[in-house]
Design the sequence.
């Protein structure tokens, strides 16, 4: 692809993702209002983080390398380490709403404790003392980790956990959206950003969020249908 065209497409796509994710935040809040699903309280927090990530990526070249972009980028990394484990909480909540017996009150509380613990580990081992340097690819000027070593273990663990939940929900409710969204996210995040740029990872997170929203939405519709059928039978 033409380099000039890529330098236009990449920033605009990141900006578009940031704006669409705000629409998803509104949708998640409406779904929470309809059912008071705790998953739809946590998901907007995640969406705020990835929307911020896309916004900073889209305007990095306009800001230019320097202390401002570096500070904004440090916040990007902090939010990433904080919110990625929250996918565990959302997944367990969706499993609970799907009727999975194992997703009881104890497991739901435990999922929040585990998520906080993983976030603390990530911050302690990766964020504290973090060194970032500027790099540019396809019109995207961003700061990345200077001495990156090894794969993101916690991100991989979170993806596999949610993937397994997605399989359970698929079999239980015939809803493949969480499984498919997480699977695409897993492979998208595995692509090296120094080769394909940042869009693959950002699009992967976006697809996973869509999968979570669709699962909640169809779960609500399934429950409403079951209630209506039960009322008709009991008449």
Sequence:
């Amino acid at each position: 692809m033409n380099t000039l065209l890529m330098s236009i497409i990449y920033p605009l796509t990141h900006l578009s993702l940031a704006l669409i994710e705000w629409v998803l935040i509104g949708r998640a809040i409406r779904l929470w209002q309809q059912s008071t699903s705790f998953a739809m309280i946590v998901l907007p927090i995640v969406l705020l983080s990835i929307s911020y990530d896309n916004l900073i990526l889209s305007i990095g070249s306009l800001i230019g390398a320097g202390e401002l972009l570096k500070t904004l980028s440090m916040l990007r990394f902090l939010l990433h380490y904080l919110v990625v484990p929250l996918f565990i909480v959302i997944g367990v909540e969706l499993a609970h709403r799907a009727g999975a017996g194992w997703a009881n009150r104890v497991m739901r509380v435990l999922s929040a404790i585990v998520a906080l613990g993983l976030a603390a580990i990530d911050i302690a081992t990766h964020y504290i003392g973090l060194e970032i340097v500027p790099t540019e690819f396809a019109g995207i000027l961003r700061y990345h980790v200077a001495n990156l070593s090894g794969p993101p273990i916690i991100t991989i663990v979170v993806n596999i956990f949610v993937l397994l939940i997605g399989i359970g929900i698929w079999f239980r409710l015939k809803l493949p959206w969480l499984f498919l969204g997480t699977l695409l996210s897993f492979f998208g995040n595995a692509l090296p950003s120094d080769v394909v740029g940042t869009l693959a990872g950002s699009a992967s997170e976006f697809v996973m969020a869509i999968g979570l929203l669709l699962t909640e939405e169809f779960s609500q519709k399934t429950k409403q249908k079951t209630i209506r059928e039960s009322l008709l039978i009991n008449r």
Notes: The CA atoms of residues 77 and 88 lie 19 Å apart.
